[in-house]
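Obj.: predict assembly geometry.
Materials: sequence records (below).
Method: joint structure prediction, all chains together.
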Amino acid sequence: MTSPNSQIDNLLNREYPAGFVTDIDADSVPPGLSEDVIRLISARKQEPQFMLDWRLSAYRHWQTMPVPQWSSVHYPPIDYDAISYYSSPKSRKPGPSSLDEVDPKLLETYAKLGIPLAEQEMLSGVAVDAVFDSVSVATTFRDKLAEYGIIFCSFSEAVRDHPDLVRQYLGSVVPPGDNFYASLNSAVFSDGSFVFVPKGVRCPMELSTYFRINAANTGQFERTLIIADAGSYVSYLEGCTAPMRDENQLHAAVVELVALEDAQIKYSTVQNWYPGDEEGRGGIYNFVTKRGACRGVNARISWTQVETGSAITWKYPSVILEGDGSVGEFYSVALTNNLQQADTGTKMIHIGKNTRSTIISKGISARRGQNAYRGLVKVLKGAEGARNYTQCDSLLIGDRCGAHTFPYIEVKNPTARVEHEASTSRIGEDQLFYCRSRGLSAEDAVTMIVNGFCKQVLNELPMEFAVEAQKLLGINLEGAVG
Amino acid sequence: MNAMLTIEDLRVAVEDKPILKGIDLTINAGEVHAIMGPNGSGKSTFAQVLAGRDQYAVTHGRIDYDGQDLLALPPEERARAGIFLAFQYPVEIPGVSNVYLLKTAVNALRKHRGEPELDAMDFLTLVQQRMALVQIDEDLLYRSVNAGFSGGEKKRNEILQMLMLEPRLAILDETDSGLDIDALQIVASGVNSLRNKDRAFLVVTHYQRLLNYIKPDYVHVLAGGRLVKSGGPELAQELEQRGYGWLQEQAGAAP
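Observations (raw structure tokens):
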């Protein structure tokens, strides 16, 4: 007889289908961080002076900052001088104007990942910006979007082509001195996406960025900025993968969202960075700062994330609710398997009157995975009638994993209403046996139970991606649930 | 005639503690067998071992089902081979709709038989027809599996699953417990609607009253991990009057 836990273990044996390496000549700067390296990155990207000055001031600030110790994740100290801060596929010309100029190996890489960039097979209704290591290699549907006045391009291009917008908004939500990793990112950020949706425009398609880390010993420091002008709407999705490598790699991104009055931004993440092997070797350190500001009346920002990859995930997509009647939402599924650790959650800062926020967090821990929800709901003095609802559910698979919840609530206005609910459950042998006795395989049963658990969050994803996310949860639990 | 199910000297332990101590039983197609017995006699263990629950260690014996070594099959393959267990305590699965589980289960079995999957329309027509038999409200289909169901709804839902999956051998584990007399009749009529010459039932119950509605061909008494007495329907009547004590003494089994 196999014990229930060894059966669950077998089911959790995962494969990581995105773990291949693309053999491509890369132009990488030597490992190490200094002002010269930052000057070099800025020069490679042909940036204006203001951008270089901004980077250097962030770098000087970063050098004075201690490494944060407050989260529940554990990892050996990172040697920031062993990382290369810039890597770009060599054959690429600066800013290819059409896909014909993109290295076929890159197109192949994305095709293999299920992200076709070639015009004839593009994902219909989804515009894609493909970021490979430190640079954006292609952005699709740009012309069509331009007809609506929507700017969707790589961050590097935005710095060159729309410097005024970048200057106005960059760092306005996540200041360069915000936290250790955000400062590091501000100093060395490479590429990411830039979106501007003009007044009253409803973006006609999903925008998405696909991040791929390929080069070894390289950090990825993406920077994304999305601005939704008054009365506009945009839905944006990011996906992430990396090859399987024995060393840990650092991914320290910053995402800033700005929604003006009556604007709505829906930001979804399906994160599947390489999680490391069963013994915890390798995998991405995913240390990310994501924050949105509802700057106008009735603005709305919603974060949806499905975090299945990375050795360590450390991120708290947050919303600052400045405008009266503005709405912030956070829907999260975080899955940790093997030795993965996740410390994730959100901050909802209620400043305006009648602001509302909703937090739905679903943590799944399998094998020796550790999952923490850490959240802050803060209602400031002037936030009359603010409301928050928080629900944190944890699902445990097996008996060596852990789930932790750290909700912080600070309320300074007596009219506010803040609700918090939490639950922890275990995928029982009972549930599994019940499904199997109805003819479902153990794998299908686990996937079904996990998807049921995550349903409230998966429902928030754009439909095409909800299907992907469901499959991903299934793959990442393969051999895990018995 | 070849028996559908032949159990020989089945012994089962949980954490090294023997629960079943040597069971022999033969069930032919078309028959209804009742297993009765006092609490703690191993009735539920027996039912779950047949369905493939692996918390129970089979330490000895064999089970032949239609010429296959049943004990070698995982639970899902037993289900696909036509074995169904109506649970004594149906399990809740939050977020998974009842109809989704039903449809997945039906299609898993159809796939196994090489039949095309039922499309949504055909499936819905079928399920509505079967729901009428067990008098279940349609909204139950769209609620999470067993979550917040009343005791009676859970048991009727088990019977609905049975009607949808049309098993060859249906095992009912104390399906009557916690049911009022109306619900009991509904459940029994659901079971009776499936009775035919190709199908067999193993009805596990503590009380005789379910057997007023589902007439068994054979009644067996399980006490102390053994089948201590077998007989016809009249045995159930006798047990109702005399209790189980005399049989336990007679068999010399520990109470």
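Conclusions so far: Chain B is about 35% helix and 30% strand.
To do: check interface contacts against the pulldown list.
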